[in-house]
Amino acid sequence: MFLSKLKFKRLSTISLLGISTLYFAQKKIDPEQANEDNLKRHVYYLASDELQGRLTGSEGETKAANYLSAEFKKLGLKPYEGKSFIQDFEYNVKLNPHDDKTSTTVKGKNVVAVLNNKAEKTIVIGAHYDHLGLNEHHNSTLVNSEGQIHNGADDNASGTAAVLELARMFSQNKTKENVNYVFALFSGEEDGLMGSKKLAETIKTNYPNTIFMINMDMVGRLNSNKDLTVGGVGTSPILADLVKKYKPEGINLGLDESGVGPSDHTSFYLKDIPVLFLFTGTHNDYHKPTDDSDKINYPGQKIITNYVFNLANALGNEKEIPFTKTKVAATKAVPKYKVSLGIMPNYADSKDGMGIDGVIDNRPAANAGILQGDVLTKIGKCEVKEVYSYMDCLAKVNAGEEHPVTVKRNGEEKVFNVKF
Questions:
Q1: What tens digit of pLDDT does each residue of 283-317 get?
Q2: Pairwise CA distance, residues 185 & 112, whole Å
Q3: Would you call the peptide bond into 417 cis, given omega within 30 degrees of 0 as the criterion?
Q4: Are 8 and 47 in contact (CB under 8 A)?
Q5: Is 309 exposed, middle or buried (0-12, 13-18, 19+ CB in 10 A)?
Q6: Which terminus of the chain has fewer Cβ atoms in its 10 Å neighbourhood, N or C?
């Protein structure tokens, strides 16, 4: 059973008179204030049944990517690379955790646009637009939900709509900001931050002085207490005061210092770029087919979008935003594990071990000498082939134990004694 959806009305069905009326109505929209109707229009289309849950590599993802590209083109923005707003990437996923031999190649599409103010500095504003599709990759929190459309209105049509609206606000105002803006809409997030990793690998090559990244993931369910979590405030010493200074009236901020979290800002933090992560919290519809457009708090989403606009402007006017490495908040630990190795795993299936995308300071892996880029192959005698076997091995370790951990580094096998 699914909640009824409003059907997205394409411009092709509007009369010439309607087009004219729409054009002049849009001309009156304040370029420096988020527009609730725009946010709602984007969310209702992206989270419609037509897009079948926007699974990375699916036809629904392609439809979403085409829609996002068209929106960027209407705003007069330029592609990040080449002549297309699409940035292609691919990765492997293991759909059956009990089958070590079979993996599936997934081809994803980031959609990335640039507002080039010919400035020396650049800020990335991003969100992931992919979701769970029909639960083909088994990421749903609803048992036996294969074949049901997971529309992902809050996760993360809400953040995607906010990025589109911010792109409109920055590109259509009459101000030439002191920074360039890269508006990045990622796919592959639900399979392990795959799209943001791709962009993070190239951002400093294309824009060497990238000074900041703002990530919006699930910003559509502002509750009655107006609780908003802002993560990453410890990634630069200037951030805590800044996010409080521009806090909208009535909003209750929960601040998290960590630059590492379960969303795309992590990919940029691991490249030594300061980040902020905005999030209105989990709910009973998280990763279920019931995460639908009619449950979004659109006035709340508007408040958050305006907040990010003000923060981005303020960050662009800062002379310097120093980068600071952060600790990981205890709440980020996965409850079923007694220990943590203190790494960010690569979720791609490489068949010969699990890549390590990041090593967190003062945690067991870092203390033992394990580095970002190493490939983890064993914890004790337990073989690690990919993320699933890594989780199985880690679950067998107790706090206080010491185990040899084997990695490959530049093709050479190395063994480190790790105290968990």
A1: 889 999 999 999 999 999 999 999 999 999 999 99
A2: 6
A3: no
A4: no
A5: buried
A6: N
Token pair of 145 as six digits = 């939900």
Given this structure, which CATH class describes domain 33-316?
Answer: alpha beta
Digit-coded pLDDT (tens) for 241-294:
999 999 999 999 999 999 998 899 999 999 999 999 999 988 889 999 999 999
Give CA separation, 130 vs 153, 278, 301, in Å: 11, 17, 19
**What are the structure tokens assigned to 383, written together?**
């073989």
Q: What sign for the dihedral angle of Cα 259, 263, 269, 274?
A: negative
Residue with tokens 């945690």: 363
What is the per-residue DSSP string for 19-71? HHHHHHHHHTS-TTS--HHHHHHHHHHHTSGGGTT-BTTSHHHHHHHHHHHHH
End-to-end Cα, the chain, rounded Å: 46
Q: Look at residue 168 and give its three-state secondary structure.
A: helix
Cα-only R_g, the chain: 21
Q: Where in the chain is the domain with CATH 2.30.42.10?
A: 336-419
CATH 3.40.630.10 domain position(s) in the chain = 33-316
Q: Which residues have CB under 8 Å from 136's CB, separation 6+?
A: 55, 95, 146
d(CA 122, CA 160): 20
Confidence (pTM): 0.79
Name the residue among 42, 312, 65, 63 with its Cα closest to residue 182. 312
Query: Which residue type does 297 have?
Result: N
Query: What CATH class is the domain 336-419?
Result: mainly beta
Output the six-digit token pair for 5. Answer: 């959806």
